[in-house]
Predict the 3D structure of the following.
Amino acid sequence: MSSGFLNIKKSLPTLGVGLGLRREIAGETFENSDSIDWLEFVPENYMRLGGMAAERLETAQALFPLVSHGVNLSIGSTDDLSKDYLKSLKELLDRLNAPWWSDHLCFTSIDKKYMHDLLPLPFTREAVKHLAQRIKRVQDYIERPFLIENISYYMNMPGCQMSDGQFLAEVVESADCGILLDVNNVYVNSMNHQFDPIDYLREIPVDRTVQMHVAGHKRIGDYVIDTHGAALIEPVYQLLQYVLSKTKVQAVLLERDQNFPEFSELLAELNQIRAIAQPVQPELIAARRAPTPAAKLNKRREERQPQPQTKGGRDLRALSA
Amino acid sequence: MPSLREIEQTVAALWLNKEARTWLVKRKGEPPECLKNAPPGILETVDKKGVSLYADLMNYGHQDVMSSIYPYCQKLLGKRWESTVDDYLLQFPPDHYNFNRLCHRLSEYFTTYGGTLTDKFPFLPELADYEWIELEKMEQDVAIKTAPHKELDDLGQLASLRPLVNPTLTVRDYRFNILEIAARLEEGKRLGKAVQPERTFVAIYRHPGSHHCRYVELGESATAIIDAARGGLSYQQLIAHAVAAISGDPQQAVVDFLELVEQFQELGIFVGSQEAA
């Protein structure tokens, strides 16, 4: 299949190895900007919000390249796309000049009710067609390359007509978009649904992968749950290595959303990712930036103004991203 | 073959509705309303264990965010908190992409559906409002533009300048002393007389420096001065306003007014002075 997206991919910048912007670790993230190549942020936590959130994003923008990773586009929902959501998102992405943006292969709302979790879709031909149309629409509206992420899922929806991998492949090829490949999700799904993760990776067009996610997970009862709350394990590193050996990617991200360890542990994981990338994709390591004088200035300002925690509220993130 | 929409609607009903999940497992009697239009095949084949897991994950997230925003309501309601949250979400399902905003109608819920809870704790709608507004103020999409606080030491300046009111400021006129109730709940003390009606004016705003939400109890005259200041009156006009509002010594009223202005400046309620129109 001819692909405009694969041509676009060639023009995208290589960002390197990054971390998620999270309120709980924002101060340490900014202090360690020399060791982190780029940040991914959840746009719903910043869209049309002021105060501390706006200041955090402004500081992040001064220090790092930023890429957005949404959780409530609800691309798979059969509700109409939210114009309000897309307008707010576009405003934000235009302001930050993000090189690409992403969301999940799932639905999060139905009948105008948001469920605030990443919910699996039935792997059907109807869903493929529906998704492809909507992805094209949002990509045209936002005017930036769009990546869709494979989610972790804990039940097969009724009516499936194909495998998980075939479904992702058909969606991204019909929509002509990119992939944000989460190899922890591949691992978690392979455990919960008993398949070989390498078979899955062979089923999908990995050359459409622009960005990757790695994260930790936890076994709870009969399930392996994608918690983003534990250290990475060796099989996930191996899947990362496998993909990096098959295709060039622009960015790898360590996801950590809860149960935060000492920050040095996160930095060690970033270095481990770099060590894996070095032999197969040295460009990812070369992407590391020297901090600009402006960035250093902002960093000092941040050190003088540690960001206090707020009492209430939660940053939205995926419970099962 | 059910359509994508039918599948999404049916499975979402199972995830979100406890009664529907119970029916799915027991299969006794008529299905609940939310499953009445379910197409054939889905309910027979759906993965019950998977449905239950997703329901738990969603419920955990909803309960967690509600507890983080409403710690005092949670403390007050104790064991009834969790079921209150469940019912609240049935009455007011999340309708916004921002996660925290799923919490924003709890005060309205207590007013409309509070029943025995508000009979026992009539201040609950106000307490919920007090707790929600903290987040709303902290995240309000308004930049607080400050200006220098100029010395108000001559008549010319009093006439030509006006205070710049913090644009995030809201003044609530509560029927109960919510600040006292919140403080007692925080300290784990009995509420006692705090639950008797006591009209209280509270200034609620985001501090321009820390970005934290602040609550300040106001007297009636201070409330009136803030209202007037929002109308763009100069300091001199505000003084006239203050003097007219009291029956005591006018000179003392001027001194009190200037002290109040200083306090408002220190608190971040007034964020500077600018030329009056």
Summary: Residues 292-312, 316-321 of chain A have pLDDT under 50 and may be disordered.
